Amino acid sequence: MARHRNVRRLDFDEERDFGDIYGRSFEDEVAISPATASQFMYPHGNTGIALSSYMKPHPLETQSEKLPSSAGASGAPTQPNQPSQPALPSQYLRSEPSIKKPDKATAPVETVTIKQSQSNTKMGFITHHRSNIDSSPARSPSPSVLPGRSTPTTTPIRQPQLTRSSLKGKQLHLIDVLSEYKKRQESEKPTINLVVIGHVDAGKSTLMGHLLFLLGHVSKRTMHKYETDSQKLGKASFLYAWILDETGEERNRGITMDIAQQQFETEHLKIHLLDAPGHRDFIPNMITGAAQADVAVLVVDATIGSFESGFESGGQTREHALLVRSLGVTQLVVAINKMDTVSWSRERFDEIVTKLKSFLKQGGYKEGDITYVPCSGMTGDNLTSTLTDSWYKGPSLAQSIDRFRPPPRPVEKPFRCCIADIFKGQGAGICVAGKIESGYVQSGETVLVVPANELTSVKTIFGGDDISAWAVAGDQVVLTLIGIDQTKLALGSVLCSPEAPVSITSLVRARIIIFNIELPITAGYPVIFHYQSVSEPAVIKKLLSQVSKTSGDVIRKKPRCLTKNSSAIVEIEISRPLSLELYSDCKDLGRFMLRYAGNTVAAGLIIKIL
């Protein structure tokens, strides 16, 4: 067989190992050429000497594999009057006679050493993959189909087709997660997901960073480093914000751009903190964080003029409060920050509380679920301990957070986890991060990735900084997946139970609530469909009916347009199929937001998948 070698760039003046440069040919991989002159001299008489005794291993070969003897491999005994030829495994011959394995007791099996160098993949002759060959020493490796050769008898193992029959028996629950979860509830503090929202420059990162420092989650040595580095950049007032704003761009610009996550504990709760950006350019990132939250802290700036700019039309105080409420957050702590800039004025505090109470009530919050706390993120006043010599006699910020009620977890429903981040870990597998919306998962379990419709196995589960054997609804986790191509994973993909997969569609019927918009919405209105960590172009295809915001009764069928503060049933067509769930089946995966021209125009619930 001809050797396909590229020698155009070869420098013959240099001393090189030409075998490594040229690569190894088809004969080099299967039939070892004789290394000495005596091995060429095979006596053709009937001497009883087997040809295999002349085939000695090459000294450079390192990897061995047991194959049948020369006669057995060729399918027929060697004739003494025929010229000797190297033995080839049967799958490389034009005809493929059945090979009878030699009896271990009678027929000796000789060891033939075959070197599998990297050149086989470069030259394109033989390709070996650990995942698709049988590692048994009694079977020959599975080669690619070669020109002029028959199709190999062994075919690579491929990803199984997703069918109902193939899903049976896939789930193997090694432990009773529900009973273990009940034990954890009795012995450990409940975990709650907290998102911090508010207008840009309200002091969210500084407030929560100082709170983490006072609670002992940041060392004094680290704070001294942040103080020194921030002074070098002329941003000494941002030293506490650097605890959460870790990227260089965020520190240089002095604003939060992506979701920052931290863990801390109060007296009765474990808190998973999500610090959301306040700038209007990063509202999609804020929606991603709010979609994973159970409760929220709304930070407002008490400085004269700053509160008004954030609260008026176009400010993020209003928009953020409505967004988190539309995404299922009902409990809220309003942290009125920077009270030191107004000399802890009680009149200023009461003025802000009065304006916010009316607005939040209209937004759907109940008065008993809202707590108003005056504080200062820079000085640390009223963050962990109450003020003794002040007119305010209520709880501190940490005490108010500790009073949040953990929401019920749908652990008995089918497993659902929306992917919010994808990255490569240190070991084998692909790591995905997200919040488990319902059900539970454990290590070794097989899950389904939609909309790719690919099965994968959960190798490890990271909850916080620890490895866990299982995780349930409400937990923020990092799952290491094996047996799947990274191209099949995407932000917004949902990991679910194979027995109860999530629907995949691009057309839904939904009930939406229109926010304070300038222009009415008509059929064909273009929007951006925000769903968990996904944002896709969409169109409001049909206006089916206008309904009451309180009772849901139909007010008008087939309205021509929808105005501000109204509610309606509409059909929405998304640019590509997404993994969507009915609100009645999974509340967290049944909510979405609609935005247009940088403004949030509506929030909706999926009531039917078309």
From TrEMBL:
Q: Keywords of this protein's UniProt record, alphabetized?
A: Cytoplasm, GTP-binding, Hydrolase, Nucleotide-binding, Protein biosynthesis
Catalytic activity annotation: GTP + H2O = GDP + phosphate + H(+)
Q: Where is it mainly found?
A: cytoplasm
Q: Which GO terms describe its cellular component?
A: cytoplasm
Give residue spans, biased composition: Polar residues. 76-88, 113-122, 133-143, 150-165
List the subcellular locations: Cytoplasm
An example GO biological process term is: translation
Residue ranges constituting the Tr-type G domain according to the UniProt record: 189-409
Under Pfam families, the record lists: GTP-eEF1A_C, GTP_EFTU
> Which PROSITE patterns does the UniProt record give?
G_TR_2
Give positions of region: Disordered.
60-165
Q: Name one GO molecular function term.
A: GTP binding
Similarity comment? Belongs to the TRAFAC class translation factor GTPase superfamily. Classic translation factor GTPase family. EF-Tu/EF-1A subfamily.
What is the protein name for this chain? Answer: Tr-type G domain-containing protein
